[in-house]
Amino acid sequence: MAPEITLLPASQVAASVVLGGQGGPVLFAGCPELIGTPFSYGREEEVYGEGEDAEFVYKVIEGAVRTHKVLSDGRRQITGFHLPGDLFGFEQGETHRHTAEALTDTKVLIFKRRQIERAATRSAEVACQLWGVAASSLRYAQDHMLLLGRRSAVERVATFLMDVDQRLGGTGTFALPMTRRDIADYLGLTIETVSRTLSQLEEDGALQRTGGRQVSLRRARLRRVVED
User: Helix H segments across the chain?
Assistant: First the structure.
């Protein structure tokens, strides 16, 4: 069960988080009343559980969050990884369809869902920005479906690494916040297949691992793996 959350007054939030930029407390530009409350989660700590009331929406400031669903046979399907700047937890219904957990020590901003919905009814700008969030989520889900249905193991892992790199700034060098098991449960592979594929890509010169989860990508070679 997720910890009890008490939203702070806007004045206290503004005092604890610097305005503006990716980590600013305001959710949407042009709507200063949508101010989030900072909250921290430890590694592997649950943010919310499947079936719980969807009262809040979350924005990642630092760290990373995974969302997943446990299937009837006990297998886990990870449905998404949420990285700094990402919004998650916005549901169509009244309850959460998936469980969300922090991958690492993670800081988020928490917004009241009803407040966002009310703002969208009053402001066309907020409604358009919400539409953009929904469209991005749909595109992400479609890309994931294509990845699982029509790509080989090597193509899945290569595409995944390029996507994470882009979302973490596109420098080509980054630390993976998720484990190989997480990657396997997201890509529909076994952990052994993910391990073999990473080793194969490294042998082919498409990436370099420098200890722990730190990787450096050779993006041109990875793109050839996906496009060939």
Answer: 10-16, 113-122, 124-150, 153-167, 180-187, 191-203, 219-227
